[in-house]
Design the sequence.
């Protein structure tokens, strides 16, 4: 499988909107409306112990929207040359991660929830979990 030549600059934090109400807010993400891929899988990280890191891999094809549904955390993305650290702390903002980038997540606040909307079903074949392999494929 060929790894995409995407750069960290192809990722962006996008507003996903909010239906505001005195009794609370709703944020809606709907295929063909406010997300640039069709969502095939949803998962969420929670109960991440303080000081713990997640991620530490890249994907060949997977695109994701990553949302701090509660609390805050940082996402570090790396394309083999450039690195960006992006702090997420707002449930109506999504980080769009394109394929072919190394990612790590850290700095989780207590009770944070990392909601991930993914463009593909789970497939271990889509992962690169070895950093040296990732770097070699990016060269
Ligand atoms: P992984 O994607 O490596 O987690 P993170 O990037 O948050 O550190 O997944 C951790 C484990 O969970 C791994 O053994 C595979 C499993 N898993 C699934 O079975 N299905 C899924 O959709 C995901 C995201 C993970």
Sequence:
């Amino acid at each position: 499988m060929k790894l995409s030549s995407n750069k960290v600059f192809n990722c962006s934090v996008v507003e996903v909107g909010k239906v505001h109400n005195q009794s609370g807010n709703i944020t809606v993400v709907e295929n063909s409306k406010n997300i640039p891929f069709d969502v095939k899988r949803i998962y969420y990280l929670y109960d991440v112990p303080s000081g713990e890191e997640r991620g530490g891999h890249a994907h060949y094809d997977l695109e994701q929207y990553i949302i701090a549904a509660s609390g805050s955390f940082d996402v570090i993305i790396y394309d083999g040359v450039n690195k960006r650290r992006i702090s997420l702390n707002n449930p109506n903002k999504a980080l769009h991660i394109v394929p072919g980038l190394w990612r790590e997540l850290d700095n989780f606040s207590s009770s944070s929830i990392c909601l991930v909307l993914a463009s593909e079903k789970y497939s271990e074949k889509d992962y690169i979990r070895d950093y040296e392999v990732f770097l070699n494929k990016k060269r």
